[in-house]
Design brief:
Blueprint lengths: L5 H12 L4 E2 H8 L7 H14 L2 E6 L2 E6 L3 H13 L5 H11 L2 H13 L6
Antiparallel strand pairs: 1-3, 2-3
């Protein structure tokens, strides 16, 4: 699964912030608070996101309602795993990452690893 382009990310940001399934019109209304997009553009982007596996949709009345299949953090983690899979040396990749990361980013990574549940034996 590929990452998101700029427009896809802008559209995807709206359902990620919502607790409820959203229609194209609802997504459009929120997006148009900060940038101007046309209804067919948002509809096409949501359809593409559905085909790419980023959102699910359900037909209610005569409109599709869209729901993210993962929250933003889960999607970012999946994309990171997909990027790391081809590497023969995960340790080297992580070392290069931490060398270029800010102290705050490095601490966030370390904190996440400390919170990781231990596998059951």
């Amino acid at each position: 699964m590929r990452g998101l382009g700029e427009l896809e990310d802008s559209v995807m940001d709206v359902p990620w912030r919502s607790d409820e399934p959203m229609s194209v019109l609802a997504v459009l209304a929120e997006i148009n608070e900060t940038r101007e997009l046309a209804y067919p553009t948002v509809m096409t982007v949501l359809d593409n996101l559905f085909r790419k596996g980023w959102v699910d949709r359900e037909l209610r009345s005569r409109a599709y309602l869209y729901t993210p299949l993962e929250n933003r953090d889960e999607a970012a983690a999946r994309l990171l795993r997909e990027m790391l899979e081809p590497s023969a040396d995960l340790g080297a990749v992580l070392l290069h990452f931490t060398q270029s990361a800010s102290d705050e980013q490095s601490e966030d990574c370390a904190g996440g690893l400390r919170r990781r549940p231990r596998p059951k034996k």
